[in-house]
Each structure stands twice: as C-alpha cells, then as structure tokens.
Amino acid sequence: MSHADFLYKLLFGILEKKQTNTMKTKLLFVLLIFLSAIFGSCKSTAGFISHSINTEVQLSQANYKVIGSVTGEATAKSVFGIGINQADLFNQARQDMIKKADLTGKSRAIINVTTDMKTRHGLFSVSKTVYISGEVIEFIK
C-alpha cells in the first residue's frame, strides 16, 4: 500500500473497515482545514532605492575604490498585531549594515543603498524582515 493510498484511506475513515464513519471523516476534514490554516502563510516582498543614510557623496573623480557589498538585516514578529515597530526595524537593519561596513576611523562611505522588506502573514502572526544593502567605497586621495 502506497503512502498516498494510506493517507486517502485514513482521511476517509476506511483503513481496516469497509464501512465509512461519517463523524470520523468530518472530524478529520475539519482538523485538516484547521491545521492548514494555522501552518499556511502568505509572503510578500517590497523594496525601494533611497539615500537613507543622508550622506551625499559626489563621485565625479577616480578618487575612490569599491571595497564590496554590505547588507544589514533585522527581523521582528507580532502576534495579534502587537510587537512590530517598523521604524525601529529599519533602524536596526541600518545599524547592522553600518557595523558590518567597518566605517569607523576610515575614509569610507556606503553608496547605492537599497531597502527590501519581506512580510510573512500567518493566521495569528506577522513576521517582517528588513534588508538594507549598499556598496562600500573607500576614498584613496
């Protein structure tokens, strides 16, 4: 007996017996719907490009080199709509990016900053993750 046959027979209450038990069938059906509602979720992603660090750098001369890319992230969850402060989430992701960029005491800047936010909706909860990324440059002259 294959797994699919076993699950089919289990769902409709005819595993060992040839009689169907409508109460058991209804209970299993309701249980299946309830579990899929709890563990099922929806996802969405939004993003934009901005200068969110408020630094304007003119790159008109060849006086810099690109060090690499850097990404900061922050995640928060809420249950019944309580627990996510979106401004704090963006600030935490920005601070994580700046920390990873190693800007302290160096002639470096972050350019081409982009922001993405993933949202996952559950039955009673929402989880948001913010990603802020950019390119790290270092001035050489």
Give structural notes:
Helix content is 30%, strand content 38%. The protein is of the alpha+beta class. The protein folds into 2 domains: 3-38, no CATH class; 41-139, Translation Initiation Factor IF3, CATH 3.30.110. The chain has a 4-stranded antiparallel beta sheet. It is elongated. The N and C termini lie far apart (74 Å). The model has no long low-confidence stretch (mean pLDDT 77).
What is the rounded distance between the termini? 74 Å
Global outline = elongated
Enumerate the strands of the largest sheet in spatial order, edge to edge or round the barrel.
Answer: 1-3-4-2
Count the DSSP helices: 3
Secondary-structure element string: HHEEHEE
**Overall SS class:** alpha+beta
CATH topology of the largest domain: Translation Initiation Factor IF3
**Helix content estimate:** 25-40%
Number of strands: 4
**Level-2 CATH architecture of the largest domain:** 2-Layer Sandwich
Query: In terms of per-residue confidence, which ranges show pLDDT below 50 for 5 or more consecutive residues?
Result: none
Radius of gyration: 26 Å
